[in-house]
Amino acid sequence: MKVYKFGGASVRSADGVRNLCDIVQSEPDDLFVIVSAMGKTTNALEGVLESFMAGQREAAQAAFAVSEAYHREIIAGLFGNGVTIPAVESLFGEVKNLLDSCEPRSEEYELWYDRLVGYGELISTTIIATYLNHSGQPCRWIDMRRCFLTDTRHKDANIDIARSTPRLLEAIHKDEGPDSAFSPVGDRTTSCIATPHTARRGRLFIGQGFIGGTPEGEPTTLGREGSDYSAAVAAYILDAESLSIWKDVEGILNADPKIFPDTRYIPELTYLDAIELAYSGAQIIHPKTIKPLQNKNIPLYVRPFGDKSRPGSVIKGEMKGRIDVPILILKHNQVLISIRPNDFSFVLEDRFAGIFSLLERYNVKINLIQSSAVNLSLCVDRSRHLPEVAKELHRQQYRVVYNDTMELLTIRGYTPALYTQYGNGPGVYLTQKTRKIVRIVRKVEPQP
Ligand code: ASP
Ligand code: MG
Fold it and tell me: Of 160, 179, 357, 411, which sits most exposed with the smallest number of CB within 10 A?
């Protein structure tokens, strides 16, 4: 068994879905495919949720109508105008009912997030499974809400691998006939539009990234970009021989080419390199992805969606050489918080515990810690809960100040020239340096 994962950018159009089918076709053995929501659907559904939570039903329905139209266009591109897929129609209906029939309470934001936003993946996988079935590659659609049991940390849930294992194995081993919901209906025959493929030798499964469910059956999501994590856990449970993440990039680069000049491609990395990179904010893979793969020594290939003949990059246990280029990672949406006890008592270990457990309770992600005699500075991901955290800290007699227009630049394997270039200047608020890594908290430059 191999596991493939396709991100939203790869399946943002009918052409993308056709390309996915071609890639899947070239792997004849058992394959488990994890797919994200199409294009920018997750962002769009987050927009729907904002209106819904604000009690603006019409605006929420109107925003969802845009997303629905986008998916209909892809279905038309795959099957022809006027064709509908009953299973997709049901999903559209479920979203519209949900938006109409409920009065959300603002403190249940995360719960509603998971009830609504996961539909992006349900819709994308249903469209893709239907297309695969129609193009001669029979597949089984797997409902990951039932296979991945998670905790109840809504919007950032963790998969309970031990309890999910029997569920996922059962879903792929049980004998099921073809599902009639996966046939499109319309005013013309569809067989001429779906490109016919030769039948596969192995079995093919299609599951959603990014979603799971609690033991009580509430849907959960695993955090933005969480489909990589889903794919890694599936690979772990299925004892996959490898995981391939298909992306719209050549492979792993040493920096984001949109931000830094002279980027270079890195053909090989170790799990250790990769986990550090992902943690520092490299967009290439979700930070939770590496652990399940490392635990079973499953190699991870990052491969270019546009050209399946190219090698991409591989992440694995050991590599022959060393990475010989500095790696630059910029993490956006950072907040620098400075916390000081009002009475000037030393900020010492006993106080850390209280502060960190408060941040943990509000699910605020800490990226950098620096302490001095009476001050604790933390660089954290921006969060809607920060005002509540600050209020609680005030109550506990701390003075709290924060600056929320920051970014965190990490340079691994920095050179003196890079340090001079990025480590100084009026926008730099804090730096932390070891022999190998420098981390710089700096103010975001205002856009001209
Ligand atoms: N669709 C989700 C997101 O955009 C999950 C993912 O793509 O990995 O964050
Ligand atoms: Mg995505």
Answer: 357
Q: Is the CB of 8 under 6 A from ligand 1?
A: yes
Kind and range of the H or E element at 410? strand 398-412
Q: How far is the CA of 36 from the centre of ligand 1 (A)?
A: 6
Question: Domains in the chain, please, with CATH?
Answer: 2-241 (3.40.1160.10), 327-443 (3.30.2130.10)
Q: How far is the CA of 36 from the centre of ligand 2 (A)?
A: 6
- Ligand 1 centroid to Cα of residue 8, in Å, is 7
Task: Using a cut of 0.90, tell me whether the model's pTM lies above it.
Answer: no
* Ligand 1 proximity of 142 Cβ (cutoff 6 Å): no
Secondary structure of 338-388 in HEC code, one letter for each residue? EEEECCCCCCCHHHHHHHHHHHHHCCCCEEEEEECCCCEEEEEECCCCHHH
CB of 39 closer than 6 angstroms to any ligand 1 atom: no
What separation in Å is there between the alpha carbon of 347 and the centre of ligand 2?
A: 40
For the Cβ of 118 lying below 6 angstroms from any atom of ligand 1, the answer is no
Distance in Å, CA 49 to ligand 2 centroid: 17
Q: What is the pLDDT along the chain (448 residues), one digit of tens a residue?
A: 999 999 999 999 999 999 999 999 999 899 999 999 999 999 999 999 999 999 999 999 999 999 999 999 999 999 999 999 999 999 999 999 999 987 888 889 999 999 999 999 999 999 999 999 999 899 999 999 999 999 999 999 999 999 999 999 999 998 665 554 566 776 544 444 555 566 667 899 999 999 999 999 999 999 998 999 999 999 999 999 999 999 988 888 888 888 888 788 889 999 988 887 777 766 678 878 999 999 999 999 999 998 989 989 999 998 877 778 898 989 999 999 999 998 877 766 678 889 999 999 999 999 999 988 888 999 999 998 999 999 999 999 999 999 999 999 999 999 999 999 999 888 999 999 999 999 999 999 877 6
Contact between 48 and 63 (Cβ < 8 Å): yes
Does the beta carbon of 120 lie inside 6 Å of ligand 1? yes
CB 254 within 8 A of CB 328: yes
Distance, CA of 95 to chain centre = 21
DSSP string over 146-208: HHSBB-S-TTS--B-HHHHHHHHHHHHHS-----GGGS-B-SS-STTTSPP-PPPSS-EEEEE
